[in-house]
Write a structure and sequence with these properties.
Elements: E1 5-11, H1 35-48, E2 52-56, H2 62-65, H3 69-75, H4 84-94, E3 99-105, H5 111-125, E4 129-134, H6 139-146, H7 153-173, E5 196-200, E6 205-209, E7 221-224, H8 229-238, E8 241-244, H9 249-265, E9 274-279, E10 281-283, H10 287-299, H11 303-314, H12 337-340, H13 347-357, E11 364-366, H14 368-382, E12 386-389, H15 396-411, H16 423-428
Parallel strand pairs: 1-2, 1-12, 2-3, 3-4, 4-7, 7-8, 8-9, 9-12, 10-11
Antiparallel strand pairs: 5-6
Helix pairs in contact: 1-4, 1-15, 3-11, 4-5, 5-7, 8-9, 9-14, 14-15
Bound molecules: flavin mononucleotide.
Keywords: Flavoprotein, FMN, Monooxygenase, Oxidoreductase
Protein name: FMN-dependent oxidoreductase (Nitrilotriacetate monooxygenase family)
GO molecular function, one term: oxidoreductase activity, acting on paired donors, with incorporation or reduction of molecular oxygen
């Protein structure tokens, strides 16, 4: 069986996306706006042997814009939040091997400035950075907040293609890896190895010199989670690590197969993409004990939170439909996967499911051994390369996992020592920190006009 990798799903806000857990007496996530909180979480992850900490992100406040705005502020749903890039720099300063994966939107970021921010973090961390490429599911609210035009779902992926082409040119082509010599008796940089880039795409343009030198990984490790046909095509072309939501073995196996097929269609190998499934777990001494702990969390979710949080993903107010309405009658230009994953279900079914699981998967609730069994069963059955732990209560969920479940997985030989200074070597198993030559970014290496 493959050696599995694990990351932690975090959000620089008081709640998980679309859930209200901040009131729980043991939940320290409410202190998301303190350096102490992030230092503690970073240390738990690094000392516990997780490969990376992932920081999700979103823009705008979809709940307030649309459905039940009162619930959003009463429960602190999804706002306020901190800038993940700045949180990342605090985490990186406190750790030495943990990777940090930031979410960056190709709809809202400026590629030229974004490329420098990522290169800066990759530089300062010695190559421990990843980028979760998102087209922004909450696009309608976000574009209003930014004052830019709305772009429809599939076109956002065309825009993402253009965005990545430009940042690849900056990361891979503008400065050669050995351009910076810093020779006090000679040159600071070799002029023959510094290149102007030129990009005139359908959405983005840039001419001239890159603002930052080649960083340890060049291009940060590329994460992606597109689930629609357009999203999978994009992920197959660019993604090195694909996140999938939770689900049954069959659902995950289908995701994994489709993602690998998209990579092959793009001229890459099926195993050049690591597939990692999001999961939540509640660990108890026994199954009953764990169920009791989990019930306390579920009890804190009101029906209003459920309605407001589903609307955050989709713009759809499920409380305005007859509960018997088939989900196939509903359409959104926001996260289509949060509608299509409920094909065959009714609005009433979805309200019940969302109340229990939110956007995430059904939690694994049980003893450490039961949870380890479930992880192995899913990984084997669905050809997964790893998992993304979405904590229920922080830091308790992460501590429970790294102290009680991970040692069992190590004992069973499915989690090895993670080697490699860079996130790419550690996670993707590459023998160097930079992208493989068959990745589309590689064609921009030092091929542009020489200065
Ligand atoms: C584990 C995981 C994490 C995600 N994190 C974010 C995020 O931080 N920000 C965001 O806008 N979307 C995030 N998404 C949503 C995806 O980027 C994507 O929009 C979604 O899976 C729907 O796919 P589609 O856009 O192809 O329809 C995440 C999805 C998954 C499964």
């Amino acid at each position: 069986m493959k050696q599995l990798h694990f990351g932690l799903f975090e959000n620089a806000q008081a709640n998980d996306t679309g859930r209200a857990t901040w009131r729980h007496p043991d939940n320290e996530r409410v202190n998301y706006d303190t350096l102490e909180y992030w230092t503690k979480i970073a240390e738990v992850c690094e000392n516990g042997g997780l490969d990376f900490l992932f920081l999700a992100d979103a823009w705008g406040w979809a709940e307030v814009d649309g459905v039940r705005p009162d619930v959003a502020s009463i429960e602190g749903l999804d706002l306020p939040r901190l800038d993940p890039f700045i949180v990342a720099s605090a985490i990186l300063a406190r750790t030495s091997s943990l990777g940090v994966v930031m979410t960056g939107s190709t709809l809202l970021e400026q590629p030229y400035a974004f490329a420098r921010r990522m290169a800066t973090l990759d530089q300062l961390s010695g190559g421990r950075i990843g980028w979760n490429i998102v087209t922004t599911g909450t696009a309608d609210t976000a574009v209003k907040a930014f004052g830019v035009p709305m772009v429809a779902h599939d076109e956002r992926y065309a825009m993402a293609d253009d965005f990545v082409e430009l940042v690849y040119k900056l990361w891979e082509g503008a400065w050669e890896p050995d351009a910076l010599t810093k020779d006090k008796n000679g040159n600071f940089a070799d002029p023959a190895k510094v290149h102007a880039i030129s990009h005139d795409g359908p959405y983005f343009r840039s001419e001239g010199y890159g603002n930052s030198a080649y960083s340890p990984q060049g291009t940060p490790v590329l994460f992606q989670a597109g689930a629609s046909p357009a999203g999978r095509t994009f992920g197959g072309r660019h993604g090195e690590c694909m996140f999938v939501g939770g689900g049954s073995v069959e659902q995950l196996a289908e995701h994994s197969r489709a993602i690998r097929a998209a990579a092959v269609d793009a001229g890459r190998t099926a195993d050049s993409v690591k597939v990692m499934a999001e999961f939540r777990c509640v660990v108890g001494e026994t199954k009953e004990d764990a169920q009791r702990l989990y019930q306390r969390v579920l009890d804190s979710q009101t029906p209003d939170v459920t309605v407001a949080s589903y609307a955050w993903f989709t713009g759809l107010d499920l409380s305005s439909y007859d509960p018997q309405t088939p989900m196939t009658d509903l359409h959104t230009e926001l996260s289509q996967s949060q509608v299509s994953r409920f094909a065959g279900k009714t609005v009433g079914d979805v309200l019940k499911d969302w109340h229990e699981h939110g956007a995430g998967s059904k939690a694994f609730v049980g003893s450490p051994e039961e949870i380890a069994d479930r992880i192995i069963e899913l990984a084997e059955g669905a050809d997964l390369d790893g998992f993304l732990l979405a904590p229920v209560i922080q830091p308790g969920s992460t501590i429970d996992f790294v102290e009680r479940v991970l040692p069992i997985l190590r004992e069973r030989g499915v989690v090895g020592e993670s080697n490699g200074a860079s996130l790419r070597e550690r996670l993707v198993g590459s023998d160097r920190p930079t992208l493989p030559d068959n990745h589309p970014a590689a064609r921009y290496r030092a091929t542009v006009a020489v200065a």
